[in-house]
Amino acid sequence: MSLWSNLQKREQLAVMWGGGVLLLLLVYVMVIAPLRSDLARMRKEVVVQKADLVWMQDAAVRARQLNSLRKTTKSEVSPLKLIDQTARRYGIASSLKRVDPGEGDKIKVWFEELVFVDFMQFLRGAGDNRQLSVDNLMVERLNAPGIVNARVTFKAETK
Asked: CB neighbours (10 Å) of residue 23?
């Protein structure tokens, strides 16, 4: 404290004022400025999150509508009829030799001498509405290029 007592009153007053200003500046830089920047960042995030919330609520409403539409569509078409319609749509109905309802929710379908590419499109089309899924598939290559025999076991999705 001898250094402090060696200072004149005027110098002591200047040092106290300078220390006070320095203390206020440190409090601002260390506490207030980071809090203000965090507050501004959080306000921007809230705006973005509110927009996301509105979008999610709209998407949820649309998903419920599509789900109810899918349920009504599912109940209208039987899986056997769906296989027949899809085979006709992809032009392979003449190669469709046998359809067996099988046990439970399985449907066995036999195709003979059909074009492999058309068969693959048929499989994609049969699964488009998610009412049928392929449970088992066996494809036998024939002597002609691109021509196959196929046996498919579909599983009818029930909900």
From this structure: 10
Task: Categorize the per-residue pLDDT at 104 as very low, low, confident or very high, splitting at 50, 70 and 90.
Answer: confident
Buried b (16+ CB within 10 A) or exposed e, 81-109: ebbeebbeebebbebbeebeeeeeeebbb
Split at pLDDT 50, 70, 90, the class of 40 is very high
Q: What is the rounded (10 degree) CA torsion for 50, 56, 59, 64?
A: -130
Q: Please list, in sequence order, all residues whose beta carbon lies within 8 angstroms of the beta carbon of residue 19, skipping any fewer than 6 positions away.
A: none
pTM reported for the whole predicted model: 0.50
Taking Cα atoms as reference points, which of 152, 157, 158 lies closest to residue 107?
Answer: 152
| CA distance linking residue 36 with residue 23, whole number of Å | 19
Q: How far is CA 41 from the centre of its chain?
A: 28
